[in-house]
Amino acid sequence: MGEIVRRRDVLAMAAGGLGAALLAGTANRVRAADQSLTMYVFRGVQGILGPDGKGHDAIVPANFVVKVGVPVHLEIINYDEGAHTITCKDLGLNIQIKGGKEVGKTVEPVTTRASFTASKKGTFRWYCALACDAGGHGWAMEQGYAGIGKEGYMAGFIVVM
Fold first, then answer.
1. What are the C-alpha distances in Å from 93 to residues 23, 60, 73, 89, 129?
2. Which CATH architecture fits 7-160?
3. Average pLDDT over residues 26-38
């Protein structure tokens, strides 16, 4: 009968479709331009609810598409007081994200900039390698579909085309 489709498979397919559309638009260029992506780290208290109904730390977007061999420049704005990482051993990534600055009961965001160039095509899982999501009792760090961290919160996929 019907086949069960996992959330990560749908996300990977959607990212792949977006990537194909992006690549089709650049086919006539002699040299592809560097890619830029802004990402955000949100605290659990900012209302990104998990299936348990509680707020959890999350990096948004959790899934993104890049072109093989083209430098990617990340700007990561952290609204959480804790440090985080974007770790992907298959791509040699271990980006350290600085924690935001606590000011009273709020957090002043801090921006981390990093660059990488993917050398091979495929779909690669990243995760945060630092213990986090304390307010959510670590739920976002528990084992996800494919490893450490819950996809869509403190883990996701990089599609390299």
1. 23, 17, 13, 6, 11
2. Sandwich (2.60)
3. 70
